[in-house]
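Deliverable D4.2, example record:
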Amino acid sequence: MIGASLARLGAEPLLTGHGRFVADVRAEGMLEAAVLRSRHAHARIVRLDTRRARALPGVQAILTADDVPAGAIIPNRVPVPEGTPRYLQPAIARGVVRYVGEPVALVVADTRYIAEDALELIEVEYAPLPVLASVEAALAPGAPRLFPGTDSNNVAVIGMRVGDADTALAGATIVLRERFTHPRQTAAALETRGLLAVPPPASGGELHLIGSTKCIHINRGILAPIFGLPPGALRLTEVDVGGGFGVRGELYPEDILVPLAALASGRPVRWIEDRRENLMSANHARETVYELEMGFDGDGTIRGVRAVIRADIGAYVRTAALVPAEFGAALLPGPYRMPDYACDLWSVVTNKTPVGTLRSPGRPECNFARERLLDTAAARLGLDPAMIRRRNLVRADEMPWDCGTVSFGVRTVYDSGDFPALFERLLERLDYAGARAEQRAVRARGVRQGIGLAMYVEKTGLGPFETARVEARPDGRFRVDTGASSMGPGLETALAQILASALGLPADRFEVRHPDTAAIESGVGTYGSRGTVTAGNAAQMAADKLVEDARGRAATLLGVPAGEVTYAAGACAARGRRVSLAELAAAGPLAAGASFSVPKLTYAGCGVAVVVEVDEATGAVRVRRVVVGADVGRAVNPALIEAQLAGGAAFGIGNALLESLEYDAEGQLLTGTLLDYALPLFTDVPLIEAFYQEIPAHTNPLGLRGVGECGNPGLGAAIANAVCDALRDLDVRVTALPVTPARVRAAIEAATRAPAARG
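Output generated by the structure prediction step:
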């Protein structure tokens, strides 16, 4: 069953409009919540008067800072440098607001309409403070500190040193230096955030939060102490999720305020985020500047690399705010031999929405900078862009490969893989020689066509563990629970196929349920392309335990030694007699659980090639072809893998060509609607050609690698390279994303002016 392209299980309700998302969930006596958000990027709250709002008929409760425990602070869920807690976000603004959209009050009313009306009746007097709307402003001499008790707006400097970059650069034939800028972006998932909090009855019971996702067990451990509850008295349940992409499911202020409102009112309270709130208040990501130097020998071999990275992390260190840039710094070497590397990473607070993880956190940024300089070096040295990559890719016989970098205490070690073979297959699928011939032919007709390449490595299968539980039912079916969340990629199907292979049964016998802390006691969640790798191995272990338990029970039932009992295709047999798992389950509960501990991270080699056309007069870029591939270790479901890669590539096209969250100097968001924050249309995305390589990972028994984040993080680099390739006779430089028509025209004009200035 592993390796079969089965149709996705559980897809019919979603396709027919019968999915159950958080906005579809109702509870008896339910109230609706709305959030009053700061309209200032930085200000003191002088006065907050809710009396008129409380008097509005239908308003049931209003929470302000006075009603929220002082300890209601959003913590980090990953290790952080010393001093970071000074920059954490309270669940509600306490005396000072630091970004537009920060919660100031929560209104609970009979309907959302009444709640929204009540927001307009709350009177807030603000005393504006200086706004730091950029890293440059936050680091400028004399800049005010955003947080008391700190000596800098730079949360931390994280250094990485591998070999001796200074000596290597000094001995290089050429050294290239460039400044690369990646824009601020967000997930803009189809479904916005939401939560329904159901308080315990007066007789006692559990506080039930419906609509949580991503890492519900981690969030339960954080939330329970805030609410003064033991973990067992707090239940989190996931329902259908309309896209996560790293943004949905992190812990936000509303995840604290809405349950507090339910506890205070004694009634269920639901909050559904609108799109403007989503763009303004859900995690942003990716706004980073790379100042990068790369030294090369005359044949294109990388000698040394030095980087300074400055990340704009917004107003607070919220949950995983430091993760993206640190992952990017650790994976800047990518799939290449880079024995001498030095990097300093700055994470700077500004008066913008806090950042967090977004599909492949940190990697689109580092891939863009590195792959652009590789193409620049190829041009300077007279090499084909494919040749310079061939010269530097880590070979299969060099595995395991230790990059020498460390992120969050873990060394970056590629356990296995064949990057050169993957690259050659990428070129073959593109028909690289044919594409170059076509480029020359259409150029003769005045069409500027460009080819762009990018190779990169994805971090997958993150730890520390994951759980699964399999229960046999008397009807011959199986109920499967896991701590991993299902946010759209098809985890249910992958786990069902793994269990089908383990137990020798059809995959449609397995019902994989959304995670619920009431159904499985512990778990980690879904992020970092970990779901199939970690939950899949846990499911395999649980199936093995189930079989052993069944063999023991069957031996007793059949009156034979356990060693004589064999198992195959859902039944145990001995001495010509058999008993099915269904029969054993009818006689008494038959279930097994397991936890898979992650010994090492799993890395996946990836590559993408694109063909674009550029209109020199307007700067418009049209993507004509995309070929994307990844090493998946072992393909559980090829169709799902190809769909993930294609979907990721579409995501990456939007990041590369369109998406940018823009602020003015006063910290006001200028792209607060989907009219301003542009997303790709289907006409922007060509038919994407996806393929995969299978080199089993050595880090887990099933040999799996994650694939959820393999499709998108190379598109910015590849598209920028293709645009420069199309305009190479003009020596155009693309050093910032997105590659908009205005940016392309500006680059053309700058390149045109440069020869005249030199003359």
